[in-house]
Design a protein that fits this description.
Strand order of the largest sheet: 1-8-5-4-2-3
Number of helices: 15
Bound molecules: zinc ion
Helix content: 40-55%
Distance between the termini: 57 Å
Radius of gyration: 20 Å
Strand content: 5-15%
Largest sheet: 6 strands, parallel
Number of strands: 8
Structural class: alpha/beta
Low-confidence stretches: none
Order of helices and strands: EHEHEHEHEEEEHHHHHHHHHHH
Shape: globular
Length: 369
C-alpha cells in the first residue's frame, strides 16, 4: 500500500540571543562535552582566543580555536575533522559566516559530534537548518549535504551581528520577509517543506510570527543598525531572521520567491547581489502571481523600504534588461525539482516571466510613491 508523506516539525534544540556570548561559551559546551574545537572566521579568530578560550579554561574545560580556510570543501572538512580527533574534541563550535557554519555542521556530522553555532552576520536563515552547501576546491558548487539533525545550539550575539555591515542585516530581513508567504502557499497546496515532508501548522505559525515581528520592528531596528549598534528592536529582528525564518521555512516550505531567486543566478549582472535581496524580488513576483490584496503588497513594500533593501531590478544591479535572459530565469524557476510547484495553482514559464516584468514595474512605482 502506498504510504502518505508524513508532516514534520524540525528545529535546532536551542536558540539563544544575547550580549557577550563568546565569553559564555562554557555554558553551552558543558551541555555536550568538555573539549571544543572552535572553527572561526579569520576576522574573529583572535577575539575567540581572547574571550572564549580563557573562559573555557576557567570553567575547567578545554578548547582550541582554528581559523577557517575560506571554503566549505571536503578537504577542509577532513582537515578540521582530523584536527578535532587529534585534539580529542567532543564538541564542534562554528563562529563566522554561512560557509564557516556549514563547515562546522559538516565536520560535526561526519565525526558524529554535537555542534554549536555563532553566526556573525544575519544575512540568511541558514544557521538553523539541517543543510550544508559543499563546494569544490575551485569554489564552484558541489552538492547539498542533507543532515539528519539540526544544529544542537545556535547562539546569536546581537553585538557581533549588529556590528556587521547594514547591507547583510537587511539581506537577512529580505530572506525572512518571504518566509510567511512561501509557507502559506506551501500549506495551501499541501506541498513539500524543506525536509521533503508535508508542511506543519507549527511551521506556518512560526512563519506568520516571523512576518509580524518584521512588520513591527524593522524600522526601529535599522536606526540602530545604521550605527552598528544593537537595540531591543534589533534583538526582535534577529529572532525573526535567524530562528523564525529558518524553522518556518524548514517546516513550512518554500514556494515561488525562492524559485525565482534560484532562476536569477542565470543573470551575470546579479552575481554580486545578496541571496536575501534576490528573494525580495522573488517575493514581489510571487505576490503578483497570487494577485495578492493591495494592502498586503503595501505592507511588504513598507518593510522593504524600512530595511533599505533594493527593490527594482536596476537597484539589484541589472544594467540592461534582456528578454532572453529573463525567459531563462523563468525556465529555471519552473524546474520541476524547484519549489514553484508549491504554489496552490499551476503556473507556466510565461506566467512567471510576465509576473517578473510586472513586479519590476510595481517596484518602480512604489519606489516613487
Ligand atoms: Zn533563503
Amino acid at each position: 500500500m502506498p504510504q502518505r508523506v508524513p508532516r514534520s516539525i524540525t528545529s535546532p534544540k536551542k536558540f539563544i540571543i544575547g550580549n557577550g556570548m563568546l565569553a559564555q561559551l562554557p555554558d553551552f559546551v558543558e551541555d555536550f562535552g568538555n573539549n571544543a574545537l572552535i572553527i572561526s572566521d579569520i576576522f574573529i579568530v583572535e577575539r575567540v582566543r581572547k574571550e572564549s578560550i580563557p573562559a573555557l579554561e576557567q570553567a575547567g574545560l578545554k578548547g582550541q580555536a582554528e581559523q577557517f580556510d575560506f571554503e566549505c570543501t571536503d578537504e577542509e572538512i577532513e582537515r578540521l575533522g582530523e584536527l578535532a580527533k587529534k585534539q580529542g574534541a567532543n564538541v564542534i563550535v562554528g563562529v563566522g559566516g554561512g560557509k564557516t557554519l556549514d563547515t562546522a555542521k559538516a565536520v560535526a556530522h561526519y565525526y558524529k559530534l554535537p555542534v554549536i553555532l555563532y553566526p556573525t552576520i544575519a544575512s540568511t536563515d541558514a544557521p538553523c537548518t539541517a543543510l550544508a552547501v559543499i563546494y569544490k576546491k575551485d569554489r564552484t558548487f558541489d552538492r547539498y549535504l542533507y543532515l539528519p539533525q539540526n544544529p544542537d545550539a545556535i547562539i546569536a550575539d546581537i553585538d557581533i551581528l549588529s556590528a556587521a555591515p547594514a547591507r547583510f542585516f537587511a539581506a537577512g530581513i529580505g530572506d525572512a520577509l518571504a518566509t510567511y508567504f512561501e509557507a502559506r502557499a506551501c500549506f495551501r497546496s499541501d506541498g513539500l517543506n524543506l525536509v521533503l515532508k508535508k508542511p506543519s501548522h507549527t511551521g506556518l505559525s512560526l512563519a506568520r510570527t516571523c512576518y509580524e515581528v518584521l512588520c513591527d520592528n524593522v524600522e526601529q531596528a535599522m536606526f540602530a543598525i545604521q550605527n552598528k549598534i544593537s537595540s531591543p528592536a534589533v534583538e526582535q529582528v534577529v529572532e525573526a531572521t535567524i530562528y523564525l525564518s529558518g524553522v518556518g521555512a524548514e517546516s513550512g516550505g518554500l514556494a515561488a520567491a525562492h524559485a525565482v531567486n534560484n532562476g536569477m543566478s542565470e543573470v551575470p549582472d546579479l552575481h554580486m547581489t545578496q541571496h536575501g535581496e534576490k528573494v525580495v524580488f522573488g517575493l514581489l513576483t510571487q505576490l503578483v502571481l497570487e494577485n495578492a490584496p493591495k494592502d498586503e503588497i503595501e505592507s511588504v513594500i513598507g518593510v522593504i523600504k524600512a530595511a533599505g533593501l533594493p527593490m527594482t531590478l536596476s537597484e539589484l544591479g541589472l544594467k540592461t534588461f534582456r528578454e532572453e535572459e529573463w525567459r531563462k530565469v523563468a525556465k529555471v524557476a519552473c524546474d520541476k525539482n524547484d519549489t514553484m510547484c508549491n504554489l496552490p495553482f499551476s503556473v507556466t514559464e510565461d506566467d512567471v516571466y510576465n509576473a517578473m516584468v510586472t513586479a519590476n514595474t510595481m517596484a518602480e512605482y512604489y519606489r516613487k510613491h
